[in-house]
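Fill in residues.
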């Protein structure tokens, strides 16, 4: 889907946002962040290349006139238009694909990943990559590669079904390469992973500088997700090898990396990013838009806001609440936020857990709320139970509203909270319950923490600081001469062994 929205203006700086599963087709923290940047910079012309599910997702945000084009690239809808390559072109693409797969599976051959990727990117632009990957030749190349003597994946006995599955997953993951690559301005990927692919193609073909902002660590989240994915080890080895090498290529090639917290920086440096190319830029909120929430609810209440998703680990929160309620029988847990399409089973699992623990009457899923401030005002304490986060908006918004918080120690949470809230280990219901009980039992401490939290937001995490920083980057980046990857003296190190996610 390609939406022409506003006309480009002569002389205006141009930025192409590269998104996946977020702006402008869905709500959530990263989408809020994108909207803040766009709305806050009417002097910049924006385009959006949005990786989506089916391509039929409606635009969920009101786009200002300076958003010129929105192009949706569906991963799971109808395959891209095109025809299979023929003759020498087919042979060249098959050779590149073999080099690509060898890099994914053989640590000694990882240097071949980037050249093969850019050859495949040109084939995608010509409309031949997807038809090739849906053909028999691609299957034959993979079965040949992973059955080579000496490769560890061979010991797992890959089957034809594994080959079909892995090839299909790669074909879908590479579909963003079919989007027209930006030819000027700045390509700003707002996550790692497949959203970056059009940016890498633009850099390779047109020299367009690539800016990468990671809110969470995309690769880490893929590792977490594939632990329980319904694939055999040979499939996981191929797909996770792709995500790892794509992350390393992105870190090496980006002109500037702006993680939302210092935790992400560790992964980026481990992946081969030059330290001088990394600059932490925190998310910000407008304190006037999130004023003090006012009186607490009369009944002791824990509130949570976000999307209902396994990465938010609501099961740990519900288990912690059961322990809280054993001490405070009148306590409630109110959960605010939408359930993404396809996530209904997870919500049902969480509801079933609350019922199993005997607290279905006190745990309420209230869906999206018209004004998110109401979600924070609904609790005496605001909870965050995620197993992975960047620099979460819900946390700094709750802090701006003057509410005390209990959060899991993931991503940039500790950087956000400082000493104005309690931070507990992830996946630890007992520690979470203990922290919640501390604050529920001490109204003076809650009030003091909430006041300190709002002051911390005003001093360090305002929206104006974020927008001004990115405007400067957008204007300066096209003029900077970036250092070529070959000049980086420290060789990239693997981010994590693919074997760590077997099972």
């Amino acid at each position: 889907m390609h939406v022409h929205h506003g006309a480009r203006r002569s002389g205006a700086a141009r930025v192409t946002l590269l998104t996946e599963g977020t702006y402008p087709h869905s709500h959530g923290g990263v989408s809020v962040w994108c909207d803040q940047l766009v709305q806050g910079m009417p002097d910049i012309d924006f385009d959006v290349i949005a990786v989506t599910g089916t391509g039929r997702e409606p635009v969920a945000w009101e786009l200002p006139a300076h958003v010129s084009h929105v192009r949706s690239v569906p991963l799971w809808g109808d395959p891209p238009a095109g025809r299979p390559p023929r003759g020498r072109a087919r042979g060249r693409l098959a050779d590149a694909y073999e080099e690509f797969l060898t890099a994914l599976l053989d640590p000694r051959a990882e240097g071949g990943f980037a050249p093969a990727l850019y050859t495949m990117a040109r084939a995608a632009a010509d409309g031949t990559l997807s038809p090739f990957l849906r053909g028999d030749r691609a299957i034959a190349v993979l079965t040949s590669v992973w059955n080579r003597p000496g490769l560890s994946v061979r010991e797992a006995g890959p089957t034809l079904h594994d080959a079909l599955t892995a090839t299909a997953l790669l074909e879908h993951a590479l579909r963003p390469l079919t989007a027209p690559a930006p030819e000027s301005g700045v390509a700003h990927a707002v996550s790692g992973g497949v959203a970056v692919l059009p940016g890498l193609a633009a850099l390779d073909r047109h020299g367009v500088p690539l800016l990468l902002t990671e809110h969470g660590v995309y690769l880490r989240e893929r590792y977490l997700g594939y632990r329980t994915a319904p694939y055999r080890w040979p499939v996981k080895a191929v797909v996770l090898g792709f995500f790892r090498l794509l992350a390393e290529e992105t870190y090496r090639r980006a002109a500037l990396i702006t993680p939302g917290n210092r935790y992400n920086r560790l992964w980026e440096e481990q992946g081969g990013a030059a330290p001088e190319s990394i600059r932490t830029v925190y998310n910000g909120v407008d304190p006037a838009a999130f004023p003090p929430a006012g009186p607490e609810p009369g009944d002791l209440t824990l509130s949570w806001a976000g999307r209902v998703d396994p990465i938010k680990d609501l099961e740990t929160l519900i288990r912690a609440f059961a322990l809280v309620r054993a001490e405070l029988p009148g306590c409630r847990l109110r959960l605010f936020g939408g359930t993404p399409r396809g996530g209904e089973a997870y919500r049902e699992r969480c509801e079933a857990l609350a019922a199993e623990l005997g607290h279905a009457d006190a745990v309420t899923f209230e869906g999206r709320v018209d004004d998110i401030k109401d979600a924070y005002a609904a609790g005496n304490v605001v909870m965050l139970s995620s197993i992975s986060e960047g620099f979460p908006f819900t946390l700094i918004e709750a802090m701006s509203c003057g509410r005390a918080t209990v959060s899991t120690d993931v991503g940039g949470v500790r950087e956000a909270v400082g000493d104005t809230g309690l931070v507990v280990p992830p996946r630890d219901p007992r520690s979470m319950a203990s922290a919640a009980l501390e604050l529920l039992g001490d109204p003076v401490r809650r009030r003091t923490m909430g006041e300190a939290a709002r002051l911390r937001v005003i001093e360090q995490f305002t929206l104006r600081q974020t927008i001004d920083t990115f405007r400067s980057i957008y204007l300066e980046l096209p003029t900077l001469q970036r250092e070529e990857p070959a000049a980086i003296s420290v060789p990239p190190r693997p981010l994590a062994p693919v074997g760590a996610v077997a099972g």
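The first strand starts at residue 2 and ends at 4.
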